[in-house]
Design goal:
The protein is α+β, with helices and mostly antiparallel strands and 121 residues long. It has helices at residues 22-26, 28-34, 38-54, 57-85, 99-105; strands at residues 2-7, 13-18, 89-95, 117-120.
Length: 121
């Protein structure tokens, strides 16, 4: 798995799992809202309803399946911009089997270590 590590203005570390998430695949509108992208969630709901109403059932199902995968790809770029707008800096991407291993892999320079760590999966 890949974890993206950011540092905020108070030198706190924030670690986010990258890659496939069942939550984003099954309920993308809720996942988007919880990740801080409510406008994207609203657009997703409108597109989903429009596809279900206007397209034949088989085509609508296939379009929604493809869109569920695509929403994640678009959302990561938007999330990166959101974090950077908060003043966070992207430190590194860590390949690790677990969140704990990712945190242990992240090394900080002496005297500049993070005071707090928040981990969001």
């Amino acid at each position: 798995m890949t974890f993206r590590v950011y540092r905020d203005a108070s030198a706190g570390l924030h670690v986010f799992k990258r890659g496939f998430a069942w939550q984003a695949f099954i309920l993308p509108e809720i996942w988007l809202f919880l990740r801080g992208l409510p406008i994207d969630a609203l657009v997703w709901i409108i597109l989903m309803i429009s596809a279900l109403v206007s397209l034949p059932q088989l085509v609508a199902g296939l379009a929604l399946l493809v869109a569920r995968v695509g929403v994640r790809l678009v959302a990561w770029r938007r999330l990166d911009r959101l974090y950077r707008s908060k003043g966070w800096t992207h430190l590194t991407d860590v390949h690790a089997p677990s969140l704990l291993n990712a945190l242990m892999t992240v090394r900080c320079a002496p005297g500049r270590c993070a005071r707090s760590v928040s981990a969001i999966r």
